Amino acid sequence: MTKRYTILLTWFVNFNYTHYLTSGGNIPLLYCIIKYIKARSEAQKMNTTTFIPFSNAQIPTIPTTDGSKLLLTSLTTIAAKYNVDNFSPVTLSPHWSRLARLLLISFLSVIGSVGNVFMISSVMVEDHLKKAGNTFIVNVALADLLITSILMPCSTIVLLAGMEEPLSVCRVQWFFAACAFVITVLSLASTAIENYFRLCTPQDGNSWFNKSTTTTVILIIWSVGIIASGMQYSLNLSFDFCTRKSNGDFTYQATVIGLLLMLPLCFTFYTHMRIIRDVKRFTKTPNFRPSLNYTWDLSLARTNFYSFLIFIAFWLPFGIVLSYHTTADVANKVFYSTAWIGLSELQMDCALDLMRRLPPQQIEKNLIDLIDLVPGLCEDLLSSVDQPLKIAKDRESGKDYLLCDYNRDGDSYRSPWSNTYEPPLEDGSMPSERLRKLEIEANLAFDQYREMYYEGGVSSVYLWDLDHGFAGVILIKKAGDGSKKIKGCWDSIHVVEVQEKSSGRTAHYKLTSTTMLWLQTNKIGSGTMNLGGSLTRQVEQDASINESSPHIANIGRMVEDMENKIRSTLNEIYFGKTKDIGNGLRSIQSLDDQRQQVGMKMELAAALERRNVRGDN
């Protein structure tokens, strides 16, 4: 009797643990226990111990008198019957609704394809991006299109058909995924090398990355990616992603991972570190004056480095799980989920890419729409996307001030004029007494700066303490009054971080400036035209601190220089390019004026011809 209850208790504890950790609660636990006890009483009459199925389907009885064998048989049958670990590499978890999986994969496919097309279009349209070396960036986008336009639509088709995914579909998807991964890794390495040659070597002669060399390298990259993935697909030389089986060919696996993965990734990271070190060394030389093209190239190299880090962050979980799987078993849910995280790495990049191209006056609406589509990106988008500044009025002084995340605490905003929160907040964050004095002086100084440059608008300065210095934000907003049939708004957000050196005589300044501009003209000749966009630039420098050059003067000079560069960029590139496109697409003059000009030209040509004929006679 004691042995029988010991077996029952052992089975109950183990099944309870397995039930809630693997089956997700799909099997009614109480029903299983009742049916088990009931069958045990019947089996007692036969002097045997019988395994009872957990559904109405009949399973042959298994006579045994060993409790451990009973437990093992029970758990094995449960796992086989209910597929507690049947996470699909093609259609994700079957416990999710088919509609949810269909919408998720379709959204990733659409947003990824649109983002990659935008990336390719930017390189083709922007003049300062039309360089042979930037073709590697296009190559990364083309590799990603293999994922978003082939791999993900295959999963969508399987879900729409409602069929059990065949093994061939999974292997085709794995072929394209592996091919895109290898091509992306090699392209990122080539991009880093090209950026280093462009930024850190003399540009007197011809660039090594010319059209012919770049084309050859890209063809080699695609050949290596297709051959390596094709050998795995056809000969099954390495780990099988779909069946999660390996043939144990360690030499081939180590060679492929070392040459096509670890070596390019390490070399890419090392090259970017060299770029950062050498650029800092160049900029500190007294006679170094960076050109506008050099600034653009440096910004592009920084963006490429961030993309490389994002690529590593998204694929690192799958790499860890894959490495761990060689020595231990990993659940299908964990294994395939980490792979899909890597395949969806461009989701955040595409969202930011779309926000940069949508009208600034509709940023709030577009941001809400994106968050509704992808709620998981809410925190990242809110912290990464700058929104247009709003204006409030200080009750004590009657002056206007600007609202942003930097002067917000909860639902209250601090005024730089009265240093109070509206609505009132008792424990709101405040700057130190020393920093508050500097904040008052900075607000007065930039108020004069705004009046001289913008002839109107609103400005605000907010400062806060750091461990080794302080930081602040300078906000400027100028909205058009609609006169001269022109509407628009200019928003400048300058975030500065100041680190004072131990000597107290110098400080390191890091300025990140974002400008959002939109214009709308309504004239008879050109009709209604909308133009808008945002631009972000960053600069760092060391400067001395003394009575003639305090913090406010140093920060003011950096902000003034940065705004002049941004205005020049907007005027020469964005406005100029838009003007060229507009003139090429349509004529500003009316058809009657054009006919008159054509007639006048013909009359002048005829008169000159008659005059020449008379002169010859």
UniProtKB/TrEMBL annotation:
Name this polypeptide is given: F-actin-capping protein subunit beta
Main location class: cytoplasm
GO cellular component annotations of the record: cytoplasm; F-actin capping protein complex; membrane
Pfam families: 7tm_1, F_actin_cap_B
Keywords: Actin capping, Actin-binding, Cytoplasm, Cytoskeleton, Membrane, Transmembrane, Transmembrane helix
Similarity section: Belongs to the F-actin-capping protein beta subunit family. Belongs to the G-protein coupled receptor 1 family.
Any GO BP: cell morphogenesis
Organism this protein belongs to: Pseudolycoriella hygida
Subcellular location: Cytoplasm, Cytoskeleton; Membrane
All copies of domain G-protein coupled receptors family 1 profile, residue ranges: 115-321
The organism's taxonomic lineage, starting at the top: Eukaryota, Metazoa, Ecdysozoa, Arthropoda, Hexapoda
CDD domains: 7tm_classA_rhodopsin-like
Signal sequence, renumbered to the chain: none
Residue spans crossing the bilayer: 20-37, 102-124, 136-162, 174-197, 217-238, 250-270, 305-324
Chain's gene name: cpb
A GO term, aspect molecular function: actin filament binding
Gene3D superfamilies cross-referenced by the UniProt entry: 1.20.58.570, F-actin capping protein, beta subunit (3.90.1150.210), Rhodopsin 7-helix transmembrane proteins (1.20.1070.10)
